Amino acid sequence: MLTICDFDANNYYRYLECRPDIFHKAIYYVLRGEYRFHVGENAENGFDLVYADNDAYTKQDSLFPDSDFYKSEIFFPPYHFYNENDIKKINLELFDGFEEIFFEEVNEYSIVIADIVNKHTKLKVSFKDEKYKLFPWIAEFASYSTAPTSENSIFVQHDFNSGYTLRNRYCTIGLFHSLFLLQWISDLPFEQIKYISLAIRKTEGIGSIMGTWSCVYQAFKKKGIKTYIEPGSYRFDQEFLNQYFIIGKVPEDASENNTAYAKCFNSFVLNQFVQTNVPRISLHLLVPEFLAHLQEYADSIIADKKVLGVLLRGSDYIVANFAGSYHTPSIEICLDYIRKKFAEGGYEKIFVASEDSDYIDIMLNNFPGKVVVVAQERFKAKDVENVKYISEYEKKKYHGSDYDKAVIDNTINYFYAIYLLSRCESLISNCMCSGVAMARSFNGGKYGSIDIISQLIDEGKIRIADQSSE
């Protein structure tokens, strides 16, 4: 991304003319080693464009999550090549339903986006940064404002924004990335793209695989593009997946001539164009025989009891230190909220789904005689302190056929737990995760309530200081 800086009269740089193709001209020379450019003749009537690598620029932001999950892979690609006139490969749907777009800062991407918005939508364009007037073709239609003038506006902030499920809040690079996602992964003409091949990291569990695939599938289905999961990119044996699940198989006619390949998991998935889609993981994605076993088991456990479902994600989620609604709040806050809801709802039992053995022990001690769990292998946060994910811990603990068996057993038990959650009357989860999305989908809208404690904290409905809820 090219940022706008004061004219540096103490050094000589290439001069560029201020016209609509200025950013493409500058990037042409960036790829040849230059990084700063003069626009105008001097400090009185000019400014400089300074190149910043998108990924490095973002990761040094104080609001960027301090977590290896986010930092270990590329988060935003460089976008050395993009075409703002190739509208079919720009996700203009992100602007649907809004009246205004408000930018906190002026840089290459806010100028390009403003121009696109003006040409292809009816949204009003406003800037808090008066440097937009440096670009005459933008000054013709944009206006200055200290805040959005419409309640129905998109707010584009300077600082990093991790609220991927919010349609009305972005950071500048994040909005640009969400708009140009398809141009990043493929040079094929839009009319030629029939499929997206989605590569899944080998660290991801089955819940993440199904949830991510569902979000991507829905996002690009709107554009007439189907999504399948790239074989070999995940850690599960294909024969095992085919035995239990029906997800994203490779179409027979898929080829390089009609497929866009999404290889960078974080960058392709963690953006608003994908994440604003709620995962729809239908029970039809389970092989019928497997589903029948789940239903029989749930019938025997829950029967006609009034059961509160509780999902407590711990272990590697604690160590990963995720941001936003995926961040795990303290177990004390969770216990207070669960006690309150359990008493108010008149529940008979609490079904607890958790891979964290410490959380299970805490729930058993705090709700004696009331807790039901599925027998499965569980972990502690200390087990994964020296690795990033449970999947890596499993590889260290098991070898050969023992590893394969452990992965299968843990995955099947995970589905028993999630399906039992979906049969409960209401759901409480300590944070957002794939299990929440899956239980909600399996439940089919029958829950009396769904409470995500991390979201309630973010919304101010649970106050951390006194651990009280409104």
Task: Summarize the entry for a quick read.
By secondary structure, the chain is of the alpha/beta class. Helix content is 37%, strand content 15%.
Could you please describe the fold and organization of this structure?
By secondary structure, the chain is α/β, with parallel strands linked by helices. The chain folds into three domains: 1-52, no CATH class; 186-280, no CATH class; 288-469, 3-Layer(aba) Sandwich (Rossmann fold). The chain is built from 18 helices and 19 strands. The protein has helices at residues 22-30, 54-59, 68-71, 108-120, 136-139, 172-185, 206-221, 238-244, 265-269, 272-275, 288-302, 316-320, 331-345, 357-366, 390-397, 401-422, 434-443, 453-458; strands at 2-5, 14-16, 36-39, 47-51, 100-103, 124-127, 143-144, 153-157, 169-171, 195-198, 226-229, 259-262, 307-311, 349-353, 371-372, 426-429, 450-452, 462-463, 468-469. The protein has a five-stranded parallel β-sheet with strand order 7-6-5-8-9. Strands 15-14-13-16-17 form a five-stranded parallel β-sheet, with helices on both faces. Strand 5 (100-103), helix 4 (108-120) and strand 6 (124-127) form a beta-alpha-beta unit. Helix 11 (288-302) crosses helix 16. Residues 466-470 have low confidence and may be disordered.
Give short descriptive properties of this protein.
470 residues, 37% helix, 3 domains, single chain, alpha/beta, 5-stranded parallel β-sheet, disordered C terminus, Rossmann fold
